[in-house]
Design goal:
The chain has 191 residues and is mostly helical. The protein contains 10 helices and 4 strands. The strands form 2 sheets. The chain has a two-stranded parallel sheet. It has a two-stranded parallel sheet with strand order 3-4.
């Protein structure tokens, strides 16, 4: 939908460039910035705790050697991403998808915050149709995406539960044909 809205309005579409821009502006690795956005597995979180000094005995020597390189501060990296979102918005005439930009830009009057959603059944069907995966795989994939989004919102913005009231427009794509999704958003942006 972001691409369609951007095309209809003559705006730029921005997604992963947010991370690239933040990295270039602050001389930080794109990989470090992208990593701060990713949801960490249980194993990754356990290893992180070990590197922070929770280990004892021989494992501590390995972990200390592994963690010897300075690690970027996660809060600073998150701030860089939010700053990049704001700088991109300052340029105007842009549709930003991903990175929970609606939360970063929530206090702005010149921003239309849009949530595009569908029922779990519709989402599963779309994944099956698009990827040729089976229903069980699609359900698992959607569950992982939803968990990742919830984790991201909590880590970046302290959002315990995403609500429709966090947005100006909510488009439920269950019943609205795909060719009309962008029209709804473009019309709302013109108001």
């Amino acid at each position: 939908m972001g691409r369609l809205v951007a095309e209809r309005m003559g705006f730029r579409l921005v997604d992963e460039e947010i991370v690239t821009r933040a990295a270039e502006n602050q001389k930080v690795s794109v990989d470090d910035l992208a990593d701060v956005e990713r949801r960490k597995s249980l194993l990754t979180r356990i290893l992180r705790e070990v590197t922070l000094g929770a280990a004892t005995g021989p494992a501590e020597l390995f972990v200390t050697a592994y963690a010897a390189e300075p690690q970027p501060d996660k809060n600073s990296l998150r701030a860089l991403i939010r700053q990049s979102i704001n700088e991109t918005a300052d340029e105007g005439n842009v549709v930003i998808v991903s990175h929970a930009a609606s939360y970063a830009l929530a206090d702005r009057d010149n921003v239309l915050r849009v949530l595009v959603t569908a029922s779990p059944e519709t989402r599963v069907r779309r994944v099956v149709d698009a990827n040729g995966s089976d229903e069980k795989q699609a359900t698992k994939s959607i569950g992982a995406e939803d968990a990742g989004r919830a984790d991201y919102l909590k880590r970046f913005y302290g959002v315990a539960a995403e609500l429709p009231t966090h947005y100006d427009v909510v488009v439920n794509t269950d019943r609205i044909p795909a060719d009309q999704w962008s029209e709804i958003v473009v019309n709302a942006a013109a108001l």
